[in-house]
Amino acid sequence: MKKSLLFVIDSLECAGAEKSLVTLLSLLDYSRYSVDLLLFSHGGALEEIVPKDVNLLPPLKYTLFSKTPLKKAFIQSMKHSNGRMLVSRIKYSVRIRGKKYTNPQKARIFWQAISKVIEDQPKKYDIAISYAQGIPTFYVAEKVAAKKKYAWVNASYSLEAADKEFQKKYYQQFNNIVAVSDYARDILAETFPEFRNHMKVIYDMINPLFIANMIKIGDSYNDDFTGIKILTIGRFSAQKGYELAIEACARLRDTGVHFKWYVLGKGPLEKEIRQMIAEKGLSEHFILLGVKANPYPFIKDADIYVQTSRVEGFGLAITEARILNIPVVTTRFAAACNQMIDKKNGLVVDIDAKAICQGILNLITDKPLQKDIIAYLEAEKKGNIEEIEKFYQLINGD
Predict the structure, then answer these.
(1) Quick one: how far is CA 20 from the chain centroid?
(2) Please, how many CA atoms are within 13 Å of residue 193, restricted to the half-sphere of its CB?
(3) Which of 53, 200, 41 is nearest to 134 (CA)?
(4) Who's near 193: CB < 8 A, 6+ residues apart?
(5) 203-232 burial string, b = 16+ CB within 10 Å, else e?
(6) Do β-strands 328-331 and 346-349 pair in parallel, antiparallel, or remain unpaired?
(7) Three-class SS of residue 373?
(8) Closest Cα partner for 147 from 134, 129, 162, 131?
(9) Is the whole model's pTM more than 0.85, yes or no?
(10) For range 364-385, the mean pLDDT
């Protein structure tokens, strides 16, 4: 008899955890497992490449209600004599309006506001997995019945006291907590030392065959640009260091190099990023392409991949660039050492715009260095699909 699995994640937008989940789902043996997937936000770019064996659950009632225009939501609440969802929604909106909260703080405030009105999962599962920290974790802990529960943490997860205390009561309901790198596990263990013995590391899964197939079917750059193509992929958030990328781009422009720096992503800082691009006069050099369900043709056709992050749980896009033999320039965030060897498979530089610019310039101008890095990349082991065995061992209790 098949084991029933439930995966819960915020959405399937084109980001690291989401791509990791889609890859994991593509590797699963569906003769052994029946898989449901629950999203809190539908319509993400990666939904179209979820395996057909996966049952995408319909949106939760509260999810639908939260997307309804407020006036219509008010009318619906009055019509059905049920104002609890409306009150919860307003409570959350009032709490966060005009204030800057961290993602963990927003997740806590959201859950405190809506946990009493969001519905339970009616089905009982053998295994339930929250594949991201925050709301998915709270939901699986409180609203899902399962024989075993596992929580994935794919970020560098240090928390302030209030959030640590709030989240502790949810994490203690999981059989294991899974980090996506040794560094992410170590930070998590500092935050929750009481759960250290229940923590495991399973790296984000990368399947080179999947990437090779995706390259064949996707679109790439369509501007006929023949200079140096630089690519960055990542959400428009503070941890990704986009202001460093923009400043590095301005410095690189001033050297006279013929290049364009493309970006795949979206996020809460998009307005500020566009403003910085305009202020620096970089509209012809720093190009925002939005989100693409299939980023691999863009990576393949780039000359250099650049990561300007301050912090990452792992750095999945770097791995994807390495698989496609694209030289990488990355900042020296702590988890970078899990996959980068400076001057071997790329360049690791300080978290500084000047250093980022110089690293890119070194790759462009030092042809022997560039040739050596590409040769090293071509000889590197590709992918880590063996991580699926760790996943099987986890959920089967081996």
Answers:
(1) 8
(2) 1
(3) 41
(4) none
(5) bbbbbeebbeebbeeeebbeeeeeebbbbb
(6) parallel
(7) helix
(8) 129
(9) no
(10) 93
Residue 212 φ/ψ region, left for φ over 0, alpha for ψ in the -120 to 50 degree band, beta for the rest = alpha
Per-residue pLDDT at 78:
66
Region of 253 (left: φ > 0; alpha: ψ -120 to 50; beta: rest) is alpha
Average pLDDT over every residue of 174-184? 91
| CB within 8 Å of 132: residues ≥ 6 apart | 9, 10, 17, 152, 154
pLDDT tens-digit series, residues 129-170: 999 999 999 999 999 999 999 999 987 777 888 899 999 999
Asked if residue 259 lies in contact with residue 252, where contact means CB atoms within 8 angstroms, the answer is yes
Distance from C-alpha of 214 to C-alpha of 233, rounded to nearest angstrom: 17
**Contact status, residue 215 vs residue 165, Cβ threshold 8 Å:** no
* Average of per-residue pLDDT across 63-86: 71
Element of type H or E holding 171 = helix 161-171
DSSP state of 342: B
Average confidence score pLDDT of the chain: 90
Beta bridge partners of 111: none
CA 103 to chain centre: 13
Cα distances from 77 to residues 66, 71, 97, 217, 309, in angstroms, run: 12, 10, 22, 45, 43
AA letter at 40: F
Structure tokens at 120: 């339970």
Using a pLDDT cut of 90, give the percent of the chain over it.
60
Pairing of strands 124-130, 145-153: parallel
What do you get for the CA distance between the two ends of the chain, in Å? 18
Beta bridge partner(s), residue 286: 261
User: Which domains, and CATH codes, for the chain?
Assistant: 3-60+119-207+386-396 (3.40.50.2000), 220-379 (3.40.50.2000)
Residue 374 pLDDT class (50, 70, 90 cuts):
very high
Mean pLDDT score, 105-110: 88
pLDDT, position 14: 72
- CA nearest neighbour of 364 among 258, 221, 232, 244: 258
Is residue 114 within 8 A of residue 88, CB to CB? The reply is yes
Q: What is the spatial distance between Cα 205 and Cα 274, in angstroms, rounded to a whole number?
A: 32
| Nearest-angstrom CA–CA distance, 322 and 344 | 11
